[in-house]
Amino acid sequence: MTTRSQRDKEKKQQEEFQSILRRLLLEEDNKYCADCDAKGPRWASWNIGVFLCIRCAGIHRNLGVHISKVKSVNLDTWTEKQITSIEGLGNRTCRKVYEASLPASFRRPQTDSALEHFIRAKYEQKKYTDKELEKQLQAVSCVCSFICLGFMPVFSTQCTFIKIKKRNFLSSPKFSPVF
Ligand SMILES: [Zn+2]
After folding, report:
1. How many Å lie between the centroid of ligand 1 and the Cα of residue 140?
2. For residue range 56-79, what is the model confidence (pLDDT) as tens digits?
3. 42 CB contacts (<8 Å, ≥6 apart)?
4. For the purposes of burial, counting CB atoms within 10 Å of the CB of 126, is it exposed (0-12), middle (13-18) or buried (19 or more)?
5. Which residues surround ligand 1, an ion (CB under 5 A)?
6. How far apart are the first and last CA of the chain?
7. What pLDDT, in 10s, does the model give residues 7-61?
8. In what order do the strands lie in the sheet with 50-52?
9. Pick from 153, 175, 154, 155: nearest CA to 165
10. pTM (predicted TM-score)
């Protein structure tokens, strides 16, 4: 049984998470679906770290949770782990990794079946992924989870470390994490 103070605490935390998500959605690259470019995504794959439109979120669900874990930005309850993950990633970082070799002239598919084909190629077959960047990103995410959620909870969801790493990651073509 939960007490009233526990419920209040949980409510306050969810409000804090919602404000983080709202702030993330204001970032330029997060204003459009990571896969089809539709405006105003309201869904997310928190483990991949992208914001999605409802149509692409449905396709992500079909990939299975071993590939993509989908949530509604404002209808679902979020955990600290999920917030930390998406806060450290986002559409810009993920495009850099998962669309590394996508030709500049590539036009995003619009029909449901072509879109599913593209999304499967992108995340299931990892056809356009820069494998080296992906490995580095996983290392960063792993260390951040370790720091944010385990041993130094003082950083909480405002982990400075993750932001610095993210900035370095985005600004250098071959980012080398130093731990
Ligand atoms: Zn979409």
Report:
1. 27
2. 999 999 999 999 999 999 999 999
3. 53, 54, 72, 73, 74
4. middle
5. 33, 35-36, 38, 53, 56
6. 42
7. 999 999 999 999 999 999 999 999 999 999 999 999 999 999 999 999 999 999 9
8. 50-52, 43-45, 70-72
9. 175
10. 0.80
